[in-house]
Design goal:
Its EC number is 2.7.13.3. This protein is an alpha+beta fold and 755 residues long. The chain folds into five domains: 118 residues, PAS domain (Beta-Lactamase, 2-Layer Sandwich); 165 residues, Beta-Lactamase, CATH 3.30.450.40; 139 residues, Beta-Lactamase; 55 residues; 160 residues, Heat Shock Protein 90 (2-Layer Sandwich), CATH 3.30.565. Helices cover 38% and strands 23% of the residues. The chain contains 19 helices and 30 strands. The strands form seven sheets. Strands 1, 2, 3, 4, 5, 6, 7 and 12 form an eight-stranded antiparallel β-sheet that branches. A hairpin with a 3-residue loop joins strand 29 and strand 30. Helix 5 runs parallel beside helix 9 and helix 14 runs antiparallel to helix 15. It starts with a strand and ends with a strand.
């Protein structure tokens, strides 16, 4: 059987330091030993080199054997029961006797392997009642604290008392994972770290990910020698994920970092809040130190106290602030918006600044700026509003450091380092923006954050200096609190509703004025129509009368003069016909007669009687078949069919005599288009006249449109336009189809009320 170690010997450099595989070091710390057992058979597949020091068995002698063969059936039964009862990774540790020695074991499962880590039972175990008393006392003290900072200070003190470490820090992350020592309990002779900041590079992403998975991390001696893990060499790239391991060996960069700080041993407990790494309880000792698993669990309980209270304490701290801003919000919601000029009154209201503790406010509406307090110039506000509308897609945004997004606006830092923005429209730069000026602050760093990783002739190493390094932060405002952003959002929503109502009101006013103007214009047009159809007809009649008299009395006039008089008479008659048709069209536009049930067969009979002379003159055959009763206006329907029959007679073909007009109703209801769900009664008016080219099927319904010269066919070009208007008044449709030299078909679609 071939055996190999799985020690990771990759060299860390500047290109891969943030991807260092710290979860698979292939080695452990020496204060315990590790076994990797195959699922199902419990065959020992991984084994740390130091097993002989703890149980007198070499790793080579253990690998390949079953757990029961190595330690007995009783030990295997205890292990199986522990796993079956769901105790893995719980606060309940597995106590096993292995080769005559007592061990406290943690067990977890990873990729078909049970990983068992064993540590000898300590001979110097603190009495459990003492730990319990300290924890109970801590709970009593905890209820006496009010703020999160006070609670964290109490936890730091309690954790130090339980564990005995020289320094215990509550380390809190910001949004970029830079850390701050938020609370601390430290040995009196040591320099305090309280308030110091550490750059995010001190804890790289992969380390933060492991802190999320494994909530407790222990290094008992910084100067330890890593113990390699061996396995049976039966697979390529065979390895063991130690993400959840207690004994996992530490990154050499992190070990060097702790050396540079002068630390001898550490305990780190993760603080998880809302599924994110909120912070750490970081315990430092300045010499080697190990604590029992029971004490570690007691310390971990301190972390649970913090995470369980974060929301409660933050809510308590924000409650008073929320009460104040909500009071201002209530006052602002009493403002009404009767006109755009009232926006300045809103901007001038004191409570609009108080509701989010801002120093300035601007409202942009229809490219005009209404502002008060400490705010940028109007042009700068418009520029900012345009950028924010694009950047947020007309939604919302807030920041305490605007120049991180708009470096070119550094000149406005003094007035507007922090902003809360809410769009007031979906397709414009209308918005409301609150401003906060810069608050110049001094941040104390534990060493220069720009030198967190140093490259020297030995390769990469963490920074050596933790001397106080001060940074002056400018162009940054006081952070916006959650109650402030919530109140701003609530008021922006309320203002948006008011503005929408204002826009509707302005639109209504505009349409009201347009309607009045339209009524006035229509009235003037009606007057013009009246003049056209009545006053202008009188001189036309006189022209016709005079020209007729001259033609009848002056028999010896020249042929040219006689022809001119006839053409003048014909033109006057054509103009008179046009004026009558215009009067009909105007009357049709304004009709509001109610519909009634009309028998189309009767309507056609009346039309034929009215047109007896015209029909007889041209020997026209008018055939009507299958005509239904429809909802309509009788006099308009008579006008409709009169125009259509007259049109067919007018455009009859000399090659096909006599002229024939068929008016036939479809037996079934039809749809106007395939997509139309309504049903229509369809009437076809077909003739055998001269027809037309299909490309003109739509344009022939336009008013004054004629396809033939006036000298060839008489008419005003209004007839089919009148027909379309009549069909529109009946909420129906009219279409035409034709073929030149063969005839035309006019189709009428009358809507049917289906119950």
């Amino acid at each position: 059987m071939k055996i190999k170690d799985i020690v990771n010997r990759e060299i860390v450099n500047l290109t891969n330091c943030e991807q260092e595989p710290i979860h698979i070091p292939g080695s452990i710390q020496p204060h315990g030993f590790l076994l990797g057992l195959k699922e199902g058979t419990f065959t020992i597949d991984f084994c740390s080199e130091n097993c002989e020091a703890f149980i007198g068995r070499t790793y080579s002698g253990l690998l390949g054997n079953t757990f029961s063969a190595a330690f007995g059936d009783d030990a295997l039964k205890q292990l199986r029961d522990y796993i079956a009862n769901g105790h893995m990774l719980s606060s309940s540790l597995l106590r096993l006797q292995l080769n005559g020695s007592e061990f406290l074991c943690t067990v977890h499962y990873n990729n078909t392997v049970y990983i068992l880590e064993a540590e000898p039972v300590s001979k110097d175990i603190r009495d459990a009642s003492e730990v319990y008393d300290q924890t109970s006392q801590f709970l009593t003290y905890m209820h006496d604290t009010h703020t999160l900072k006070e609670l964290c200070g109490l936890v730091a003190k309690g954790t130090r008392e339980v564990t005995g470490y020289d320094r215990v820090m509550i380390y809190r992350f910001d949004k970029d994972y830079n850390g701050e020592v938020f609370a601390e309990s430290v040995r009196e002779d040591l320099e305090p770290f309280l308030g110091l900041h550490y750059p995010h590079t001190d804890i790289p992403p992969q380390a933060r990910e492991l802190y999320m998975q494994n909530l407790l991390r222990l290094i008992t001696d910084i100067n330890y020698t890593p113990v390699p893990i061996f396995t049976v060499d039966d697979g390529e790239n065979k390895n063991l994920d130690l993400s959840l391991s207690i004994l996992r060996s530490t990154s050499p960069i992190h070990v060097q970092y702790l050396h540079n700080m002068g630390v001898g041993a550490t305990l780190t407990i993760s603080l998880i809040h809302k599924k994110k790494l909120w912070g750490l309880i970081a315990c430092h000792h300045y010499s080697a130190k190990n604590i029992s698993p029971e004490i570690r669990l007691a310390a971990q309980l301190q972390g649970h106290f913090i995470t369980s209270q974060i929301d409660v304490r933050q809510s308590s701290e924000e409650y008073e602030e929320a009460r104040k801003v909500n009071l201002s919000l209530e006052k602002m919601n009493t403002f009404s918006l009767g006109s755009a000029s009232a926006l300045q009154e809103i901007a001038d209201a004191q409570d609009i600044l108080k509701l989010c503790n801002a120093s300035g406010i601007s409202i942009v509406f229809n490219d005009k700026v209404y502002k008060s307090g400490i705010a940028p110039e109007d042009d700068e506000i418009k520029q900012l509003a345009n950028w924010l509308a694009t950047y947020t897609v007309n939604s919302s945004f807030h920041t305490d450091k605007l120049i991180d997004y708009l470096p070119e606006m550094k000149s406005t830092c003094e007035k507007a380092s922090g902003i809360i923005y809410h769009s007031l429209d979906i397709d414009s730069n209308n918005c409301i923006i609150w401003f906060r000026p810069e608050t110049i602050t001094e941040v104390n760093w534990a060493g220069d954050p720009a030198k967190s990783i140093i490259k020297d002739k030995k390769g990469l190493s963490p920074r050596n200096s933790f001397a106080l390094w001060k940074e002056i932060v400018s162009c940054k405002s006081k952070p916006w609190l959650q109650p402030e952003t919530d109140a701003a959002a609530a008021y922006a929503f309320s203002l948006q509703r008011h503005i929408n109502l204002l826009i509707i009101s302005l639109e209504e006013e505009k349409y009201r004025k347009l309607s009045e103007l339209l009524k006035q214009t229509n009235s003037e047009l009606e007057n013009i129509n009246w003049i056209s159809t009545h006053d202008l007809q009188e001189p036309l009649r006189k022209i016709q009368l005079i020209s007729s008299r001259i033609l009848s009395k002056e028999a010896d006039m020249s042929p040219n003069l006689q022809d001119s008089l006839k053409r003048m008479n014909t033109s006057a008659q054509r103009m008179q016909t046009l004026l009558v048709d215009i009067l009909k069209y105007t009357k049709l536009k304004h009709t509001d007669d109610s519909l009634e049930l009309v028998d189309l067969a009767s309507i056609i009979d009346e039309v034929k009687e009215d047109m007896t002379e015209t029909i007889a003159e041209h020997s026209t055959q008018v055939i009507a078949e299958n005509l239904p009763k429809i909802e309509g206006i009788p006099f308009l329907l008579k006008q409709l069919f009169s125009n259509l029959i007259a049109n067919s007679i007018k455009y009859s073909s000399p090659d096909r005599q006599p002229p024939m007009v068929k008016i036939i109703g479809e037996k079934k209801l039809m749809a106007y288009t395939p997509e139309d769900k309504h049903r229509y009664q369809v009437i076809h008016v077909t003739d055998n006249g001269i027809g037309f080219e299909q490309q003109y099927a739509e344009s022939i319904f336009n008013i004054f449109t004629k396809l033939h010269a006036s000298s060839e066919f008489k008419g005003s070009g209004v007839g089919l336009a009148l027909c379309r208007k009549i069909m529109q008044n009946h909420k129906g449709y009219i279409t035409a189809s034709g073929e030149l030299g063969k005839g035309a078909v006019i189709s009428l679609y009358f809507p049917v009320n289906e119950i």
